[in-house]
Fold these 2 entries.
Entry 1:
Amino acid sequence: MIGKVVFISDSLAHVKIDESKVATNLMNLHIVFEEGERKILAEVSDISNEIIKAHFLGEIIEGKFFQGIIKKPSLNANVRMIRSEEVALIVGEDNNQSVLLGRSPLYDDHKIRVDINSLFSNHLAIFGNSGSGKSWGVARILQNIFEMEKFVPYKANVLMFDTFGEYHSAFKDINDKNSNYNFKFYSTASEATPRERLKIPMWLLNAEDVAILLSVTEHGQLPIIERMLKLVKVFAQDDEMANKYMNHLIAKAIMTILYTNQTASSKRNDVFSILASCSTREFNLEAPVAGVGYVRKFRECFLIDNKGNFTESILLTKYVSSFIDDSMEAYEPEKETMYGLEEMEKALNFTLISEGLLRNDKSYNDAIALKVRLHSLLVGKYSKFFENDEYVTKEQYISGIISKQGKKAQIINFNLEDVDDWFGKFVTKFYSRLLFEFTKGLQNRATIPFHIFVEEAHRFVQDDLDKKLFGYNIFERVAKEGRKYGMLINLISQRPVDISETVISQCSNFVIFKMNHPRDLEYIKKMLPNISAEVVEKQKTLQPGTCVAFGMAFKVPLIIKMNPPNPAPSSGNAEIFKNWGVPVEK
């Protein structure tokens, strides 16, 4: 017996220590209040010279542990240390459905296991300071999963958005350990091979994806993007109907200008400006325009007489109006086809001359801003990520991501080390949206689960403009709805305060490594009502590679010491002594 119970509240008990019988440090250890057949488990959270304070955690009933208690123990309850067989109840069972997480530094390195369903069928957050062991912990957990002897997770789909390229070394040789497993690598580095280079099909982007890619900030730009996407699908067909549609748009734009009250020279300048960005074989400055017994070049129709009028105004009007066909506005191509940034820019140019934009200064300025951004993307270093050799459907593209040379790939690493944050955010949001829609559309719900690991999540999973512009944020949608479709998100971050509150609030499991920043600690306490002050205090003194884990997968908050991953991710500090040193001449 440890001592006598002297005080009991709703969640706390004070026990006066029997110094003659207690000769060990009880801090953070578990004790049992035993009263007849009842066994109530508590954790020691504070110790003074005479009193220990313990928080109630749950009850042991017929050899099983249940969280929470209904009836408190009495002051006459016997208080003792937890027994070894009872420790096993709270650190997880050893079976083919559980995975090893690490060892307990409090209980003689007792192995700590967790049920795979409880941990991986819910969203997970992994927080900790830089150097606290987050990357090691993630690598170790996944390595333990793929090193299980009684379970082969062949159909796992783990997508890692690797901001610093840390995880390649940890998983690249996974096939050597088990031929059933394969690691796939996508890189944003300029020296990446064609097979490894990140490739995103433009035709799989929806309006929201394009808006994120082009850094849209105004609602008025969204209809422009939607119109552009409709036109690019038509123009990508590269057939007679596409040419007819382009002629229709150019003709309507020119007729709009001809019927304005501008001077003839101003009208001519506006028409020539249209043809500079949008032209076809029927509409260009050298196109032949046939009159009665003569032919003029299109530009010659804009010669101005001494009265300030076009000399061929009747011929011009008749020629241009002959291409207007309002039925084209309802035309939709029968099949999808591939297109890239060049086709997108062409479609935007035609969108820019469309009726409703040309004479509207606000809409015109919004479109010009999009045009500048799209052209910068086209001629910039990121254009190579949108180069594709053949058309693929959404299903074919996803199938290609999770396969490697005809075999199933379980871990897919996207190395975002060589791109800026805005592009990295686009990439993570695009794949999250694509996979969410795919899993949501499966006939048999949640039969193909995907786990997304977002390293440096505070840089991407933010409370940004998406909700204001689109009415939703894809990460928040995945956090709120993805679990039931098998779309799970795993956040890895050293700054949880910068992550969307909605996403964190939907996480059911937490692995917290050492954190010291007051704002982050306060944020965690505020956002997670089930975290106690004791848990927050515990993590302040943790060693690198040691964490506090709690949530649905854990019966009680546990301190876990993880074994170093083998091989380790490339997340260590620089070897200053080694790199500074030079030979000393004697």
Entry 2:
Amino acid sequence: MKKSIILIGFILSFLATQAQEIKLDKTSFNALDLTYPGLEQVNKLVNNGDYEKAAQQLLQYYRNRTKVKLTEYNPDDKIRYIGKQLPEATMEKADKALLHQFQPHKGYGYFDYGKDINWQLWPVKDNEVRWQLHRVYWWQSMGLAYWSTGDEKYAKEWVFQFRDWVRKNPLGLSADNDMYAWRPLEISERVQSLPGTFNMFLYSPSFTPQFLLEFLNSYNEQASYIQAHYSTVGNHLLFEAQRVVTAGCFFPELKNAESWRKSGVSVLNREITKQVYPDGMQFELSPNYHNAAIDIFLNALRTTQLAGEEDDFPASYKKTVENMILATINFSFPDYTFPMFGDSWLANKQAMLKEYQPWAAAFPDNQVIRYFATDHQQGSAPSYLSHALTTAGFYTFRNSWENNATVMVLKASPPGEFHAQPDNGTFELWVKGRDFTPDAGVYVYSGDSAINKLRESYRQTRVHQTLTLDDQNMVITKAALNKWETGKDLDVLTYTNPSYKNLDHKRSVLFIDQKYFVIIDQAIGNATGNLGIHFQLKEDSQPVFDTKSNSVHTSYTDGNNLLIQSLTGKLKEEPGKVSYAYRTEVPRPAFVFEKPKADDKPQYFISVVYPYDGLKAPEISLQENKGSNLEKGQLDMTITINGKKKVIATQLN
């Protein structure tokens, strides 16, 4: 009886699969260039009206072709997976996908989309969850599980889900559905990943000749839609163009393939000159998205090289990508992390080493890139220390490239795109392996009003290391560089940002003796209100607040500590939090030095940011000398640290 039930179930399942097979006719082959070399027999069969045999011949062609290559997941890669245990997370995605439990976004868990998959389900009102559902990330996990186990259930289910998605999400179904399923960025994610998935399931019995044509026709529609509906700006446009290049190179048998490739190449050649500043920084001013742009440009280059079309990109294109990698090196800390400016997350050394390896392969003669790709084992460190990306406004003070370094990266930039924040003046300070002042990060992107409120709480100016007027967001982020000068004992940065109506914020940062910092903030203009200079510390710093000395110092028992002290302003604790990853946050210490601005006279804050070794904070005092005139940019002061005096006299402008 049990065997009969199983047999009946198998027959019903088989019939359901066959019911989905579309009857073939001449239009089934419309997307194909049947004159493409290797398709001669297919062309003959189509012209003779033998569409079933033509489809079988086409499938055989794809199973036998060897010249078309991807950067990963080629058919011959299967040998590396057969019988090998996959990461637990990959198998979980694949197995849950069999039950229609998908994890669209790693910031959330799995959601059940039902036996009859509801592709319009919006389980939480975060737009990213609904958008990323249509990126179908789990399909490649299913493919890897198929390669690893050989279990046909993964192939059969993938074919079902692909067909189900195509049937239930036709272009034009509704404005709402088009907004999510047919947003060009989501389409491009599918266009990018489907070739690898195609290779994984191509030899499966479930991958029938009829399904092949369904797949090709859907892929053709999706890639063509991107070409006609590119995003207008930013990383979305870069992603879409690069993935259209992939489509053109992987399916050269399709009529539109050459048009896709040339279109994507044209966009990338144009945008690399528009989106990348002369100093190598991508104009969204977010380190994470900057690195993503590097990968986009390099992936397109590698794809065309594999297709024998490397002349699509000029030498200047490759040189710009090289400069972008050097920019990443300049704003990074010795442990391969970097500031969470704008919409950025906490970096990971092992992940970054994996990034550097293909970068080094692309530029084998660059010894600096090799140095970072090999974890300092080969190549050489940059010949300089402190360095400025002056167009992007990323300024790095550095005393070493080694793990015992002191490194401050400060952002004073031109206006950024969506992923930038109103934060000019903010900085992160990394000392001997510890990031004492991580930037706010980004908790979430967009959704309903509650989600958007959470996003704004991380974007606001007051949660960055900079000046505010009445705790409001700065209105303009357009810093003008006044001075950048480096020397053996003193590095100086001064910039001016028109932060508020009738109020400029002029900030000078001095890196003294390659050890500590003095920050001078000037609020210039006739605006009035309450001024504040804000600081945020790492969540485990256990700070000591001393209102008598107007200072705050950390209490790390390993002796690697930081003192922040102000000559002016009233010390006040503030609530603080930081987000190192999507939808995660932790509370952290934060504080502000405040003073009123009642008239049009400039107001000043002078702060010392002093890393020190030991458990006892140093005693520090500052005194302006007679020659000092901050309004004219003349600094002359004496700083006393544990009774030892040092005169600092320099021109700030």
